[in-house]
Amino acid sequence: MISAFWTRTERYRSYGWDRFAAADSVAGWLDPSSRRVLDIGTGQGLLAAALARRGFGVLSGDVSLDTHPVATELVRVFSVADRVHYLLCDGSSLPFSDASFDRITMMNVLHHLGHLRPVLTELTRVAMPGCQLVLADFSKAGFELVSQVHREGGGKHASTGVTLEAAEARLTAAGWNLRRRGTQHLEEVASFQYGRADRRRPR
To answer: Which domains does the chain have, with CATH numbers?
Structure first.
């Protein structure tokens, strides 16, 4: 699995996409914090490692441990294993108390979600007032590039069709304010701040 990860990483790079630079760019959107960042959807651990390299303590959860060996390898390679804690959890049912985090991230997860509302409801529940949420997912060009590489390997890059635009609409209704949005390294990125006291849930 680990060798396959590095092989695909080089294949992406040959097409002009550096997945490590993309993760570092997304991590750069997060404001400093003395508290631990909640990263939803560990995957191969690219964002968790990027956050840790920037000095954040990271609590990163995923519904599957399938790619855990890669995520563990990355924090070892970058010498940040002491800053990252992985756990098995479902984003739609987080094992944390209300208002537990002031920084939350989620990268390249939206297009895997079958149901958007439960995850955004949970992110809102565990967010402190003023919490910053950074969401990122592939741009159109990013999806095309990743899909091409998957096809070359005999696979398919699946997508449920959930978009950043859909997430923005639900988050706004739940009391999150869009602070900034942009596209870089084939990623669409948006930063939100939780700013209402009534803590409405996404519709």
So the answer is: 2-194 (3.40.50.150)
